[in-house]
Every structure is written in structure tokens, then in C-alpha cells.
Amino acid sequence: MELQSKPDFPKTLERFEAWWRCELIDRPLVSMAVHADRPAVRPVPTKEHASLRDRWLDIEYHIDRVEAWVENGVYLGESFPMYMPNLGPEIVATLFGSDLAFSEDSTWSTPIAGNCAEILEMRPDFETEYWRILRAATEMSVERGRGRWITGITDLHTNADLLAALREPQDLCLECLTDPETVAAADRHVTQFFRAIYDDLHDRIAPAQAGISTSWTPALHQGRMYNLQSDFICMMSPEQFQEIVLPDLVAEMKLLDRSIFHLDGPAATRHLDALLACPELDGLQWVCGAGNGPASRWAELYQRVQAAGKCIQVLYTDMNDAKELARQLRPEGVWFCLEGVYSRAEAEAFLEWLERWAAGKRV
Fold first, then answer.
1. Which parts of the chain sit beneath pLDDT 50?
2. Which of 160, 183, 211 is the last residue of a domain?
3. Rounded CA gap, 239 and 271, in Å?
4. Of 15, 124, 190, 244, whose CB count within 10 A is highest?
């Protein structure tokens, strides 16, 4: 598959496929934002909306902006033009009856379940207003993005995150203590719909993209891939996690060809070993959280991930942070994701350094 503004996209895909296998073609993956060294090709459109809700739901406006971003963008390393239609992280809760509240930068769902026993009676409705809009945005992105960008599957917070969206997180915490059996049953109940939820979007995207899938984290795979998550587990003990949530995460992993897990915050690291023990899981994305960086501070965690045979996405503060941590890792299966925006010269120099580093350390 070829993209107009990313002539080396086939090579990028090849490197991603090697990354999933913890192998190396020539160098590790690297994603970073690069300043354009030319005037903007097209101005990014703006528009006045009567409300935040209207702005969020104006799918044509968002895709008009994507077109401008793609044409103006510079894509070095494994950065590539993509768009993930998005109505916020709790969109799945709307399939079960929740409404959405809108803010400038995100949305959140309205809790509707008094307890997890009520969730056991719920079924997803794929004809709700928000899901139909998300479908339409996905289809429009696929059509207008042909040969120009990759369309990603939206941010799906399922399993325990879905329970927390349908309840209140603090109420779900209490219910994990007072009625863990029903919480576990509700988690299994909503997980049985993961395949249908994922496929409703994947099957609209994959045929137009040679089977390639991506998500809110721009990993690539020519098959069924997703970045799984369960942010609620930071409030669970290891025993609760392994009894209530982990079996359903594994069930989601089994429905995918490739999976990477989003581990969010230091409190979630208590579950790292249980996750790494899952043969169904391919990789890990660790987010240390504000004030807990840089990435090189967490070298021991990344070493544990590599020792378990998993690929890793590392979110670096800057190039110096990347070089410091690189000294303590093997190059196979590492994806360098750098914060900040760099000049083309800086980016190209880092790519050259990365290739030299990998050549000197590869097994």
C-alpha cells in the first residue's frame, strides 16, 4: 500500500511487522514530529459552532482539517499520516445507553447503572446516535483518505473501564470489595461484545487499507491489531485484577492478531508481571505519568518487558532521554516515540544515530 505523502510507507510497515516479532531489519522504530521546511500547502480550516457538542459531531469539519494536516505534514522515520475518528474515550458506554457530556478536549459518559447486576441485563445497540456518527466518520475518513492517510479504530475503553463508565469509578471500587463475583460476571458480560464492537469498525476500514489496522496509538499491523487498556486496574489489588479483569483482557487478546497493552501510571505496575506472563500479549506501552519521567528513570521496567519477550513502545522526553535509555536496552522490539517537535536536520541525525546504535548492539 502506498501513501502520497509517505513514499516509504511499505518500509515502515515492514519495520512494524519486525517490531511485533521483537526482530530488527535495520534499526528500531522511531516516531517524532518534524517541522515542515516549506510553507503550508493548505491552511487548516476553522469554523464557528453553536456548541461544543456541535463541534465534536461535525465530522466533515474534522476530516477537512485532517486533509490540511496531512498535506502540510512531514513524515520521517515511522511517522505516517493517520486519522482516528474520535468521540472520546467512553464512546462504548453509549452503546449500552449512556449519554455524553462534552468539554473542549474530551468527553465523558453519564453513569446509568446502580450496580453491576444491572449491567448484566444490558446489550449494545449499534444504532445509537453517537455510534452512527462514529461509523459515518470512519467511513468518510476511509473514503477521503484513500492513498493519503491511514484510518484508525477509535479509542475503545472496554472491560473494567466500561464498567466504570456505566457506574461511577468510586462505586465500582466499593463493589469490587462487597460483591466481586457480580463485578467479575459483569466484566465477562460486556467482554463478550468486544468482537462485535471491534469488527463494526475494523470491517469498514480494513478492506480499503490492504488489511492494515491501527488505533489511537499509531502502531501498524497488516491484520487485526489493537492497543488494549484498562485504566481502572490502577485501583485494584493484584488479586482483584487477576480474578476479575485479566481473564477478560486475555479473551480480548485472543480475538486479535497483535495486541499491545497500555499500562497507565505507577500504581498499575503492580500488575506488570501478570500481564507479561500472558503469551497472547505481544507488547507493552508504559505511560509513567506527569512528574514521573523521564523514560530513562524506568530502565528496569523496560528490561523486564524485554526479558519477557515483549515489544515495547517507549515515550521519551527528548532525544537525550532516548539515548540514555538506549544504553540499557536491546534494539530488537523497541519503538522510540519522542515528545517535542524537531527540525528535519535533527530528525535525520537521530535516525542515523539510531541505526549506528542498533548495528553495535543487535544480537
1. 363
2. 211
3. 9
4. 190
* Phi, psi (rounded to 5 degrees) for 153: -80, 135
CA dihedral sign, ordered 301, 326, 280, 167: positive
* DSSP per residue, 146-194: TTT-EEPPP----HHHHHHHHS-HHHHHHHHHH-HHHHHHHHHHHHTTH
Domain shared by 67 and 195, yes or no: yes
Distances (CA, A) of 73 to 14, 80, 106, 140, 315: 22, 9, 24, 20, 21
Domain enclosing residue 297, as ranges: 1-37+75-80+218-363
Whether residue 200 sits in one domain with residue 223: no
Q: How far, in Å, are 66, 147, 160, 208, 318 from residue 212 at the CA level?
A: 19, 13, 28, 9, 29
Q: In Å, what is the CA distance from 78 to each residue of 53, 73, 194, 303, 349? A: 34, 13, 29, 23, 15
- How far is 27 from 50, CA to CA, in rounded Å? 49
pLDDT digits (tens, 9 = 90+) for 222-268: 999 999 999 999 999 999 999 999 999 999 999 999 999 999 999 99
Q: For the purposes of burial, counting CB atoms within 10 Å of the CB of 127, is it exposed (0-12), middle (13-18) or buried (19 or more)?
A: exposed
Query: What is the reported pLDDT for 37?
Result: 83
98 within 8 A of 178, measured Cβ to Cβ: no
Decide if 29 contacts 336 (C-beta within 8 A): yes
User: How does pLDDT run across 45-59, given as a tens digit for each residue?
Assistant: 999 999 999 999 999
Burial (0-12, 13-18, 19+ Cβ within 10 Å), 259: buried
Instruction: Kindly report the number of other CB atoms within 10 A of residue 257's CB atom.
Output: 14
How far apart are alpha carbons 88 and 333 in whole angstroms? 30
What residues pair up with 316 in beta bridges, in sequence order? Answer: 338
- Output the CA angle 152-154-160, nearest 5 degrees: 135
Q: How much is the pLDDT for 360?
A: 84
| pLDDT at residue 363, rounded to an integer | 44
Beta strand 311-316 with 283-287: parallel, antiparallel or unpaired?
A: parallel
pLDDT at residue number 313: 97
Domain stops at, among 183, 211, 239: 211
